[in-house]
Amino acid sequence: MAKGSVRSASVFALLILLLQACSMPGTATPTPMLGEPPLGPLTLYVSTSGNDSNDCLSEATPCLTVVYALRISTPGSIILIGPGEFTANGPLTARHDVTLQGAGIDQTTLTRASGDVMQFTSPGSRVTVRGMTIVGAGPDVPRNGIEVREGVMLILENCRVRNNYYGIRLFADAAAQVSNIQVEENYYGVSNRGDLFLSSSTFTRNLIGLANYGSAQVDDVTFDDNGHFSADSRSGTATIDNGGDGDLILRGSRLINSRSYGIINHGRSVLLDGMEIHDNLGIAVWHQQGQLEVRSSVIRDNGVYGIAIGGRSGVPSVGTVSVHETAVVRNHSAGVRIDGGHVSLENVTVSGNVATTSGGGGIWMYGGTLILLNSTVAFNTGHGLEAGPGEEPAVVTIRRSVVSLNSTEECLLDPRVRISYGTPGYYVCVENSEAALGLGPLAAEAGTLVHPLLPGSPLIDAGGPAALCTTIDQRGFGRPSGLTCDVGAYEFGTTTAALVLATPDATTVPDIVPLPT
């Protein structure tokens, strides 16, 4: 046999022996070669005293930059970022599931001189960010504090997001669960085109607090001192803007001190549940199209209308508005302004609203349809109901309600307006005295503002057949308490709630100031 053939046979035999040894029971798994990544998630440390040549696996050997820690992280890793300011040369991004944990708000600060601070773009990844402040290059620089792209899930907790163009920007098909954050001094606090759940947070001094064009649920959030108004152009921004295909739910939240509009709806749907909306400079709630439901809320002391419906040119259909178990009190121009659409007010108190020299007061409408049920429209400076023809004559249906005790003519109606009072109509568009109606001063009860009925009031048990009564009054208390329901938003003699509603806590309603005369 040739020498080359012998050598080949020997090598082949050696390979067989090695393979047999590897397959023998009890043989140890070979150690990964140098340079291969570990198989499991890591806990990595970042410190202002660290070095990116360290292994970053302990507090004694931390990384210097978050960028490097993200680069060496594995799926499911936790990156613990110590106190101090960390400035990135590029956006912080993650290729897989990762948690970024800071030392606390204003203890750990992530910033960038230009560009996005954080940018998460890997579909299917889940990124958690906690305990830090995220600062951008300024609200005039078109960059993001946190950008979340399609297919990414963001968990954001216990953070401050400040001084960005977009504080948080969610693209279509992105998702975010956000809680206990402070959103400050951004152009857009949050811009959402994905799926957003936001809770227990505050928005302050943003030009637009929340712009929603996707699906958003907002619970227990305070929007305070947001928006912008230009005296030169006479235009402004809304604290909350719901547009496009936006579906927005706001529960148990506060919308206050806006520098212009409170909320504008030109999207698909908005639900306001248990809201406090007050002391906004412009219109508190402006519904332009789509669907709006307001329930168990207090809308008071705003600079223009409490609720405005329609009035925007170029809108083919205003849509529908339902307001119930709600107080619309002490707003300027009118409590409710209607310029189109189909509007229902049930168990609503419209009181103390102040007309302008051109009209207004309680309810002011030019077109549209209004159904007013079991409501109290009283003590407004101006008319209780003013209705003009608009493009088409307004249509008004009133049942079991009070429209009286307003400062001028109770109902100022264009002859073309169609109105139905029902029977009896003793308390609608009729001048009465306060003593004759037995309607008490405005008071805070069960988290809302009502005019209680006084003993002996003719409104008690005057609501007609009991089968037509609503089951609750404005406070959520059961109807009827007597033979039949009472007229107006208040049911006399009931002290327990028949249905638990998401109304604001009574302690959050301030002392009632004297009403204008």
Quick overview:
This protein is mainly β.
Describe the structure in your own words.
With 517 residues, the chain is mostly beta strands. The chain is 6% helix and 40% strand. It is built from three helices and 39 strands. Strands 6, 8, 10, 12, 14, 16, 17, 20, 23, 26, 28, 30, 33 and 36 form a 14-stranded mixed beta sheet that branches. Strands 15-18-21-24-27-25-22-19 form an eight-stranded parallel beta barrel. It has a two-stranded antiparallel ribbon with strand order 38-39. It is elongated, with a radius of gyration of 31 Å. 49% of the residues are buried. Mean pLDDT is 89; it is low at 5-9, 11-19, 26-33 and 496-517.
The residue ranges in which pLDDT falls below 50 over 5 or more consecutive positions are: 5-9, 11-19, 26-33, 496-517
Rounded mean pLDDT is 89
Main beta sheet: 14 strands, mixed
Q: What's the shape?
A: elongated
Helix-strand makeup class: mainly beta
- Radius of gyration from the alpha-carbon trace, in angstroms: 31 Å
